[in-house]
Amino acid sequence: MIIALSGGVGGAKLALGLSRIMPPEDLLVVVNTGDDFEHLGLSISPDIDTVAYTLSGLANREVGWGRHDETWSFMETMEALGGDTWFRLGDRDLALHVERTRRLRNGESLSAVTADLCRRMGVGPRVVPMTDDPVRTRLLTDLGWLDFQEYFVHRRCEPVVSQLQFQGAGAAKPHPAFIAALADPALEAVVICPSNPFISVEPILAIPGVRDALMACKAPIIAVSPIIAGRAVKGPTAKMMTELGMDPSAGTVAQRYADLLDGYVIDHADMAEVVSIDARVTLAQTLMTTMEDREALAKIVVEAAATLRRREMHGLRHRRVP
Ligand code: GDP
What pLDDT was estimated at residue 312? Predict the structure, then answer.
């Protein structure tokens, strides 16, 4: 069994690769919900939806969000009526939000709704929200505190970020399947996907109990860098690092996860950083453009985990002492 910690686009790409090189039911994808928000009366979980659409083959791979077979009558009509259109909701996507919202209002948990909708969409791996409790990422910017989607979508990540906050995280309980899997002797690896550390992975790590359970987990923890040659493939990861006073690099991401990491996969382009990284580094092609890229990177991660497990058997664990 493998656990993958994921945000949206970058994480979902590697989760898809993993799901294609192992029995999908043995993969547990734990997804950030700090991006979740309420909009037009709907409960929207962007990272869960990106992961679900990606794993079911329904995702729009060009834009990186939403579905590939989308139509836009709802948005066009909203626009004509003078409604809010800054958050694009395609017609088919809308059905998912309407159905989720209805079921949450009927008292079902986010994880129960997610599990059932994923099954209906044909998602193989188990997908669980990091928590069923509300957590909302907020950012302190040059425009003041902004809700996540206000920053990310409405203002296109343009405001300068100086601080982040995961509202509700302190009172949230991690998803029980996540904590149980971390203690399962069958667990082979925890993979921190190439997601934005600040807004996709750290909200998961901010939930009380998660860090301790990761530290105690016997399987190796391996991250894949979302930064290649000082740049993010997509999104504000590198921009945020600069604004937060950090050098945008693969090494900086490793430092964010410092005490957790046994292994770290970085791009060949970042070979010079190996010496500065305090984990067992594997060099790889980490840009996932094709399906083959996703599968190849997933195989490298799984093999790196196997190597770490073998080293541990010989008393050569790199760093984290459970
Ligand atoms: P979001 O919630 O949709 O922003 O998605 P994530 O946090 O999961 O992913 C954003 C991060 O994924 C960015 O830092 C990107 O650089 C990274 N990313 C996207 N595609 C790739 C890829 O093919 N390879 C690697 N290594 N990183 C990627």
Answer: 79
Domain 2-136+172-313 fold = Rossmann fold (3.40.50)
Ligand 1 atom with least separation from CA of 226: 27
Q: Which atom of ligand 1 is nearest to the CA of 224?
A: 26
Ligand 1 center–CA 10 separation, angstroms: 3
Residues 14-45 have pLDDT tens digits of 999 999 999 999 999 999 999 999 999 999 99
- Residues whose beta carbon lies within 6 Å of some atom of ligand 1: 6-11, 13, 47, 50, 194-196, 200, 224-226, 228, 232-235, 237, 286-288
pTM: 0.97
Q: Which residues of 169-190 are buried (b: 16+ CB within 10 A; e: fewer)?
A: beebebbeebbebbeeeebbbb
pLDDT exceeds 80 at position 138: yes
Task: Please report, for residues 37, 89, 254, 283, the alpha-carbon distance to residue 82 in angstroms, rounded to integers and kept in the order given.
Answer: 21, 15, 46, 51
Alpha carbon distance 297, 14 (integer Å):
7
Mean pLDDT of the chain, nearest integer: 96
